[in-house]
Amino acid sequence: MTTTVPPASTPVPAGMPPLSKIPDFDPRHAPVVGVDTQLPPVPAAAQTPAALRQRFAKPPVWEPEVLREARFAQRAPADAAVLVPIVLRDRPTVLLTERTTHLSTHSGQVAFPGGKTDPEDAGPADTALREAWEEVGLEARSVEVLGTLPVYVTGTSFMVTPVVALVQPDSALRPNPYEVADVFEVPLDFLLDPANHRRHAMEWQGHRREWFSMPFQESGPDGKTRFIWGATAGMLRNFYRFMMA
């Protein structure tokens, strides 16, 4: 997929807000330009704990599909990390959060637990584990870090390292109400099936914006549609490419 970075000769206007901050912009209504039904899903046998451990212990040679978003704001780059927590249920799931609407960046969006690197963090795994504790109360003793995926640069200039980990299913969570509006889980096999990966594109202020989304409809009469898009979907798409390399 195109990385959506404008050509060097086309400067990004100062103060350009992210798409999520454009009045009346709703990513759910953005045009869908493709769905990758032609690509195979990651086999179930590759999604077991043992297979995931082996994959990260001996990673393949591969190329990520999405590495950088178009820059949305004039701010200094900052290192960050997120935890990609695979919950070890009978059907493994990925734990995700819905950010509160008052946050300054990516408010209201579906996200992995994570955030900006602190000076005392020893590395991306330390950042991801600390942030997961601060955001959702996930204790490090319940987490087995497997490895990392390539750095993903967001439109708000965060250089994010995704840290993939296995999480015990009985982990007690205590979401921070200031940062987290909701915590939920999505089946891993749903996220690793390209038939559920939608490609979106639109023009805004003379620039073409492209991104993935992975809408997930929860079961039950009160089930919500969890709209996973933007950076979170981009990192999951890279996870798919890593698993299929």
TrEMBL record:
PANTHER family: MITOCHONDRIAL COENZYME A DIPHOSPHATASE NUDT8, NUDIX HYDROLASE. Gene3D superfamilies: Nucleoside Triphosphate Pyrophosphohydrolase. NCBIfam families: PRK10707.1 (NF007980). Its cofactor is Mg(2+); Mn(2+). The keyword Hydrolase applies. Pfam families: NUDIX (PF00293). The keyword Nucleotide-binding does not apply. This is 8-oxo-dGTP pyrophosphatase MutT (NUDIX family). Residues 1-31 are annotated as: Disordered. Residues 77-207 form the Nudix hydrolase domain. Keywords: Hydrolase, Magnesium, Manganese, Metal-binding. It comes from the Bacteria.
